[in-house]
Specification:
alpha+beta; Ribosomal Protein S8, Chain: A, domain 1; 4 strands; 10% strand
Amino acid sequence: MCSRQAHQNALMRLQQEFHHVELQSIKAEFVVNGHNLERTRRGLARIAGGMAETRKAQYRARLEGLHRERLAASECRRSEVETRICEAVAEWNATFHATATYFDLHGLTKCGAVSYVRSILEATARKAVHRVIRMETGRGNHSPRNLPAIKMALLREYPASTGKAGPGKWTARQDEHNPGVLVFTLN
């Protein structure tokens, strides 16, 4: 059985590298060493929750900084900053929404959101794996006049089935349970 210090060292190591380690391998390590798995699991969940909140705060601060930079940027430099905003959101989705069917668009500009969604839908259609994708646009609470600019732009870009959407076309509709989410369906 490991000493208390070795156990603490192992937990510190896991705290630093938690996002790279699968829970099953952690359980196996602690089963071998005879530790209380349930207590360890609860501790790791607390650590992961705290790390996720810290990362989310860092991400939000980064996005806020980019948006301030965008507002202060010259017209020709604004496009570059908007690209960096899109990259930050894409990185966040790839890291924290580990699913190919759900994406968070918070923080994007309207044009950036339309472009980002188009790239996701095109890639998804090419793979032909998923026919339904959910995009969290928000309800417009932080938009000028509380109008959901991203949501409205996407609904115009991908109209619901009105006869215009043929095979291989995406349509969008508001999620019936969450008005801040759009559901995209491949026809």
